[in-house]
Amino acid sequence: FDVTHQSTELPSLLLELFPTARLTLSPSSSQVFEGDFVSLSCEEDDSSAGWTLRRNTTTETRTQCGADWGASAGSSCKISYVLPWDSGVYWCESREGATSQSINITVSGKMTVILQSPVLPVMEGENITLICRTQTSSSLPADFYKHGSLIIDRPTTAPAQAEDFDDVMAVTTEHHF
């Protein structure tokens, strides 16, 4: 009985039985503005698994891309003009019922300020950039807060480490629209 040989076969056997996919979002920001273009894609370990993009919103449950929203192209989905009711949880699902990680997308109105940040998960220690922006301005001078405490004063962007991003962050700006 060769334990070493058995342990190397197990992960590949599990991948065959339970194929995986990783959901990617472009642009890589969980907050977007009404009217933005969004592309979601299932990066697949096994293309034969037949991955489909699905979502839950406040008005729909487990709906498939192409049915009433988005344009499906294989294991990708493009939404050419997002609206507030496109806010929700998105994920990839195989024919067998396996699922990817989910991404929560929030669609904000045109006159709001958003914190543009990478879609989670990010790896611990990975450098990330946080940007405070409106739909008409790609970056604004802003104060960045974490748990109510000021961490960065008036930059246009805030470089951070991924482990800093695990906790709630907020942005304030004195710009009036």
TrEMBL record:
It comes from the Eukaryota. InterPro entries: Ig-like_dom, Ig-like_dom_sf, Ig-like_fold, Ig_Fc_receptor. GO terms for molecular function: transmembrane signaling receptor activity. One of its GO terms (biological process) is cell surface receptor signaling pathway. The keyword Transcription regulation does not apply. Keywords: Disulfide bond, Signal. GO terms for cellular component: external side of plasma membrane. Residues 19-108 form the Ig-like domain. This is Ig-like domain-containing protein. It comes from Mastacembelus armatus.
